[in-house]
Design a protein that fits this description.
cell membrane, G-protein beta-subunit binding, G-protein_gamma, 96 residues
Length: 96
C-alpha cells in the first residue's frame, strides 16, 4: 500500500512540476464536454471487462459464508463468562 501511495505521490509531483493535473484530478466544471465524455468512455471500457455473475449466486455464496462462520461468531453464540473482560462486578458508573 505504501508503495502505491509513494507512486501516486511521485506521479502527482511530476504533474505539479509541469503545472498540470491528471484528467481524473481536475474538476468536471473545468473540463470541456469532450474531455468529460472521453473520461466516461475510458471508465466504461474498464468496466466492460469486469467479470459479472448473477445476484442470486452471489447471495447464495454470501449466505453460505456467513452460516459457515456462525458457530464461532461471538455476537450470535455469546462470549463465555470466563473469557469476557466486561463481565462481573467491576464497579461501574452512576449518572446522577
Amino acid at each position: 500500500m505504501d508503495a502505491v501511495l509513494f507512486y501516486l505521490g511521485v506521479c502527482f509531483q511530476d504533474f505539479k512540476q509541469r503545472n498540470e493535473l491528471p484528467v481524473a484530478a481536475r474538476m468536471a466544471r473545468d473540463m470541456s464536454d469532450k474531455e468529460i465524455l472521453k473520461m466516461e468512455l475510458d471508465q466504461l471500457k474498464k468496466e466492460v471487462n469486469t467479470p459479472r455473475s448473477a445476484v442470486s449466486k452471489n447471495c447464495a455464496d454470501t449466505i453460505a459464508f456467513v452460516e459457515g462462520l456462525m458457530p464461532n461468531d461471538p455476537l450470535i453464540k455469546g462470549v463465555p463468562d470466563d473469557k469476557n473482560p466486561y463481565k462481573g462486578d467491576k464497579g461501574g458508573c452512576t449518572i446522577t
